[in-house]
Amino acid sequence: MTTRTALRLAGCIVLTVVAGAALLSPTAAWARRPAVLSTAPADGAALSTPPDRIELSMSGTPDPALSHVSVRDGGGAEVAGGDLTAAGHVLRRPVTVRGAGDFTVTYHVVLSNGEEAVGQLSFSVGTGAPPVARPANAAPETHQHGIDPLNAVLLLVDGAVVFGVLLLLISRPGPRSQARREPAAE
To answer: Among 74, 131, 150, 162, which is least packed, fewest CB within 10 Å?
Structure first.
């Protein structure tokens, strides 16, 4: 292998590593993360009357078939009923709140373009006070999808194939190299 080929190979390796790191970094993954613009009831609201639905206004169009919204009372019982519906950028879930107390809404919203928003909010009904705050370091109880093992393996195989093709293209002698190797006919 010549010095020039070795430099090309090293350059391709560095470029591949940098591109892979940029694509797989958490910053790239979260840069396009959709936002919940507003909620009804608002996070931390102290309501005197119970709501009949939960509404999440999103930065994109939610897909109710792929989204999940759970509403639980202080004892952990589900108070949401009915199906999720979407109208424009608003996702709605009917609730039946009976009695006073604190309620927690946990959501995993998938937008029509495949982006996802995951989070939690809380409100109180009939207590005259905002819901009890959870500790700042407590992670919200959210519904999240794990990594699909088949797709992860296929992604790794794809990367290995691309890397192998790059190596073959770089190490393969070009037409000029072969012309130099052939002795001149005398």
So the answer is: 150
